[in-house]
Design brief:
By secondary structure, the chain is an alpha/beta fold. About 40% of the residues lie in helices and about 25% in strands. The chain has two domains: about 240 residues, 3-Layer(aba) Sandwich (Rossmann fold); about 45 residues, no CATH class. It has ten helices and eleven strands. The strands form three sheets. A six-stranded mixed β-sheet has the order 6-5-4-7-8-11, sandwiched between helices. It has a three-stranded antiparallel β-sheet with strand order 1-3-2. This is DUF58 domain-containing protein.
Length: about 290
């Protein structure tokens, strides 16, 4: 299947191959809790204590030692993961790599990590509406399906309504889950994660390009808004850049305050970074 994908979409196939190698070589094995309990993975033998389940007595070892010994098992903890890319026109930007390509790679990293840790995952795409991207699965084909859908999604002309999206996610996802919300998260005045965070555990992944946070003085430019499709002449001089940077700082300060209030963890990844290390660290803490 990857060979066919390589022929039709070389960029996406290379992302899948590189990311799978990184995840399966670096991330820990199945997501097994340190708690003791009834499971399928043997942990240790120890002497019988009052209250232990007699069904777990190892009669062979007990006979050899003349003392009752019980088997202790790992309690397996299955984590339900939901991957939610927020796709809009502003992702069609990047000085080295498009933010949308970085977002696609992050979705692949998260889903491969789920497969590696034997956790089921599903995905939704948030844009001008919310729709199911991939159904719940633990299989590799789900990773490729997610990657294909996100990569092929046309973000140009798309805008986001964060209030609608978060309310739709709250209604749609019933089982307690770990939600990974991925986007550039500009203009988040209507973003409210409080209700969603009370129901689920949320991790916000912010994708940015360093130039859009700290642009250089380039003089007179004609730019097109990829979300609204509108063009305008602007001047990137000292005064306009100072005002612009101030707005970016205010946007992020407001966003961080909202995340802190809602108890939401977050990480920011830039287009000139390799996201693998940060994403794998997130998944191992899950």
């Amino acid at each position: 299947m990857l060979k066919t994908l390589l022929e039709s979409n070389k960029k996406l196939a290379l992302i899948l191959i590189k990311t799978q190698r990184e995840v399966f070589s670096k991330i820990a094995g199945e997501n097994i809790s340190k708690k003791r309990g009834e499971g399928y993975d043997f942990q240790e033998l120890r002497e019988y204590e009052t209250g232990d389940d007699i069904r777990h007595i190892d009669w062979i070892i007990s006979a050899k030692t003349t003392k009752p010994y019980v088997k202790v098992f790992h309690q397996q903890k299955e984590l339900n993961v939901v991957i939610v890319p927020f796709l809009c026109g502003s992702l069609h930007f990047g000085t080295r790599t498009l933010k949308k390509d970085l977002l696609t790679q992050i979705c692949v990293l998260l889903s491969y990590s789920c497969v590696k840790q034997n956790n089921p995952f599903e995905s939704y795409i948030c844009s001008d509406t919310l729709f199911l991207c991939t159904q719940k699965t633990k299989q590799l084909f789900g990773v490729r399906r997610l990657a294909e859908k996100v990569e092929s999604f046309d973000v140009l002309g798309k805008t986001l309504d964060y209030s609608y999206s978060t309310q739709a996610l709250y209604r749609q996802i019933q089982r307690k889950s770990m939600l990974f919300l991925i986007g550039d998260f500009f203009d988040t005045h209507d973003l409210n994660l409080m209700a969603l965070s009370l129901k689920h555990e949320i991790v916000l992944i912010i994708v940015r390009d360093r130039f859009e946070e700290n642009p250089a003085e380039l003089g007179e430019l004609n730019i097109t808004d990829p979300a609204l499709g509108m063009s305008a002449e602007i001047s990137l001089n000292k005064n306009t850049l100072h005002s612009y940077r101030k707005k970016i700082v205010q946007n992020d300060e407001m966003l961080y305050k909202k995340l802190q209030t809602a108890g939401v963890r977050f990480v920011k990844i830039y287009t000139d970074e390799d996201p693998a290390e940060k994403i794998i660290a997130l998944m191992e803490k899950a």
